[in-house]
Design brief:
By secondary structure, the chain is mostly beta strands. The protein has one domain. Helices cover 8% and strands 60% of the residues. Strand 11 and strand 12 form a beta hairpin.
Length: 225
């Protein structure tokens, strides 16, 4: 083998080594849609309606809810998790009062919230239009066949122009005696910005609500503390 051939072979071998050592680009999962960053808070304007025909009650409540991500800790399964504080006040002039504390985490491709000891899968990464999952796969709740209706879209909510949002469809069911409609909207680097949850039960062949619960969260503001 002559000198030129040896040189070309050396260059070729070196190129192969460089190609093999080159790192593949890291997949983009868009975990920032969950908004899980310690200190991040979001304030919502909330409308809640409670129906109870037996007590002749159809109460409508208006208040504000504030969520705050706490510091990171290791849960009993060895996963990194964060406390998720939820505060409530009726008027903006009122002090915040701690309502409850949940837990949130990202486990692989799943963003989960443990709400009152019920583990729910809120998002699955990376968001695409062909992903489907059961939000209640890890609890005894009804099957919610979730999917993404919109991804990476701009939206106007409560006077705020927000880019990079996605919508998670959870339930859309109607019968003669039930209406269940649930979906949520998330924004990059904020998290949940809108929640629509209606679960009403009607008297047969009547539009009168016998019992039920409606709750709407609408984004007000966000920041860090």
């Amino acid at each position: 083998m002559n000198t030129m051939a040896k040189l070309l072979l050396t260059i070729f071998a070196f190129s192969l080594i460089l190609f093999a050592c080159k790192k593949s680009p890291k997949p983009v999962f868009h975990e920032e849609y969950f908004g899980l960053t310690p200190g991040r808070y979001v304030i919502y304007d909330v409308r809640e309606i409670l129906h109870d025909q037996a007590l002749a009650k159809h109460d409508t409540l208006y208040y504000q809810l504030k969520t705050v991500w706490g510091t990171t800790y290791i849960d009993n399964e060895g996963r990194e998790a964060n406390e998720y504080y939820r505060y409530k006040r009726v008027l903006e002039s009122d002090p915040w009062v701690l309502k409850d504390t949940w837990t949130g985490l990202i486990d692989g491709v799943r963003a989960e919230l443990i709400e009152e000891n019920q583990r729910r899968i809120k998002l699955v990464f990376a968001p695409t239009l062909n992903k489907f999952w059961n939000e209640n796969a890890y609890n005894n709740g009804s099957v919610y066949d979730c999917y993404y209706r919109d991804i990476h879209s701009d939206t106007l909510i409560n006077g705020h122009q927000i880019d990079s949002t996605l919508v998670v469809e959870q339930v859309d069911f109607t019968s003669l005696i039930d209406t269940v409609r649930k979906y949520e909207m998330y924004s990059k680097n904020i998290g949940l910005i809108y929640k629509h949850s209606i679960d009403n039960h009607y008297q047969f062949s009547s539009n009168e609500v016998v019992d039920g619960h409606e709750i709407i969260y609408t984004y007000n503001s966000a920041g860090f503390e």
